[in-house]
C-alpha cells in the first residue's frame, strides 16, 4: 500500500467519533466542562450532523467522547491529591496519587487504551483502579468519599496565591469558609486574627480571592505541550494538510498557557476544517469556516487557522506573536514603505498583499535574520538582529548532565540505578544525586548517617556504570538564620551542594535575602536551588531581593538554578537574563523525583532561550572533562 493510502486509512480510523449514553458523570466542580447543560447524547444525533461549512459565529455544537481524556484524568487525580492534603492524609498516600497523575500526564496515548495500568510508572493496584474508573467516566470511591467529607469548593481555594491545601483546610475548620467567594466576602481582620496570618498576607489573599476567575484556567507548559502536540499530530495526519505548527504563546514557550493556536497550510481547507470540527477531542465547536475552526477541548479553547501554502509564513508569524514584537516589526516595515499583516507584505498604500511562504523569508525581506519564537517579546531582539547580535541560543542537546535529582533515599521514586540508566538513555555524561537534608522530614530528609550510606551507594553505582559519572550531592536546606542543615565537615565530603529554602517563607524580604546570601557565602554551596520558591498557579515567590542575590552570586561564584519543573521554572526569565548580564552562571536542572521527570529539562531550556542564554553560561553544558576541573577548582571570586 502506498504511503498516501496508508495515511488516508489512518486518518479515516482516527476521525471516528464515539458516543456514550447519558449517564451520571463526575462531580461538576471537578469537570464542569463535561457536565454542562445541552450536551448532545447519542439519541440526539441525526445522521450526518456537523457544523455548517459556511462560517457562522453563532455555531456552537457540543459532543461527548467515551470516557475521560488524559488531561481530565490528571485533573481529577490532582483534585484527589488536593482533597487528601486538605484532610492532612499521609504524605506517602498523597504522593502515590500525585505520581499517578504525573504518569498519566506523561502518557503518549489515551489512558483508557492501556489494558494493564500497573505497567505505568508509579501506578499500583489501588491507583490503577481509580484511574480506570476515571477513564471510563465513573466516580472513584475515594473521590466520592473525600467529596462527602470535604467541600470541593476548597480545591479552588488552594489555587489562590499563598493558600496551599493545608491552609485551605485551616480556613475551612477555623473560619467555616468553603469557597473562594466566601473568602472574598470575609471582613477585614478575620484572616489576620488566625495564628500565622498577618495583615499583609490577609490583604494578599483577599485581593486574590476578589479577582479570582474560576473560568480562567491556565495550563503549565508540560500540560499545554502534551495537549497541543496531540492535536497538532491530528491536524498533520489529515491528507489535506501540507504543514502545520503550534503558534501563540505555546510556541513562544511562555510559563503558562491559556489557549492553543495552530496554523496549517492546506490546498483543501474545507476538508481540513470539517475534519477538525468533527475531531473526537472537539467537545464544543464555537465557530466553523473554511479558514478558521474554533473548538473547546477539556475546557481549553483551540483556534485552528488554515491558509494556502504560499501564505503560510506570514500567518504563522502573525499568530505566533508576541503582540509587542509584531507591532514593532510592523512599524519598522512602515518606515520601509511596506505594510505587514497575516496576509503577507504589501507596498504601502496599495492594499495588494503578496503572500510569504516562510518566516525566514518574511524577516529577510525586512532586512533581519530569522528571530526564534522564544525571543519575540520586544525585548531588544529586533535591534540585536539589525546589528547581527542575536544570541546563539542554548538547545536541549547542549545539556551534558543533570545536577539536581532525587532518589528513593528521600522523597523520590527512582533508585540510584534506575535514575542513572534513564540519564544514560538521554546521553548524559554525568548525574548528581541531591536528596533532601535532615530537617525536611516531610520529604524523608537524610540524617548524616543515611547520607553517608547513600554516598557509599553512589560510589558503588559509579563503578558499575562506565557510561556515566555519578556523583553524590545534597539539596541542603537553608535554615531560617541562613545556616545550612549539615555541618561543614559533612558538606566537604559531598561532591556537590545545592542549597534551597523549603520552610519559613514568611520571614520578610530583608531577612530572606540575608538568609540566602549567608548560604551563598558558604564555600561548599555551588548552587542556590529554585531561588524564589514559587509554584506557578499555586504559590507566589517569597519576598526576596533577587537583584541583590544576583549581585552576591557574582561576588561569591555561586550558581543560580533554573529549575525545569513545569510548576517552578525558577528563576524566572527576567531574572535569568539579569543574572547572565551580571556574569552569573546558571544551572538548568530538573529536580527530578523519578526517571521520567529527567525529560523535563526541555522546559528549563525553553526558559533559558527566552532569557537569551547561550550554552557557555550554563555549567551543566560543560563536557565531563571540563566539569570535573570545575568541581576540583572549588568556588572563587569571578
From TrEMBL:
SUPFAM superfamilies: DNA polymerase beta, N-terminal domain-like, Nucleotidyltransferase, PHP domain-like, Sec63 N-terminal domain-like. Residues 68-377 form the DNA-directed DNA polymerase X domain. GO terms for cellular component: cytosol. It is an enzyme of class 2 (transferase). CDD domains: NT_POLXc, PHP_PolX. Residues 115-134, 155-174, 189-208 form the Helix-hairpin-helix DNA-binding motif class domain. Its cofactor is Mg(2+). One of its GO terms (biological process) is DNA repair. Residues 401-480 form the Polymerase/histidinol phosphatase N-terminal domain. SMART domains: HhH1, POLIIIAc, POLXc. Keywords: DNA replication, DNA synthesis, DNA-directed DNA polymerase, Exonuclease, Hydrolase, Nuclease, Nucleotidyltransferase, Transferase. The keyword Nuclease applies. It comes from the Bacteria. It catalyses: DNA(n) + a 2'-deoxyribonucleoside 5'-triphosphate = DNA(n+1) + diphosphate. GO terms for molecular function: DNA binding; DNA-directed DNA polymerase activity; exonuclease activity; phosphoric ester hydrolase activity; zinc ion binding. Its EC number is 2.7.7.7. Coiled coil: none annotated. Pfam families: DNA_pol_B_thumb, HHH_5, HHH_8, PHP. This is DNA-directed DNA polymerase. It comes from Rubrobacter tropicus. The lineage of its organism: Bacteria, Bacillati, Actinomycetota, Rubrobacteria, Rubrobacterales. The gene is polX.
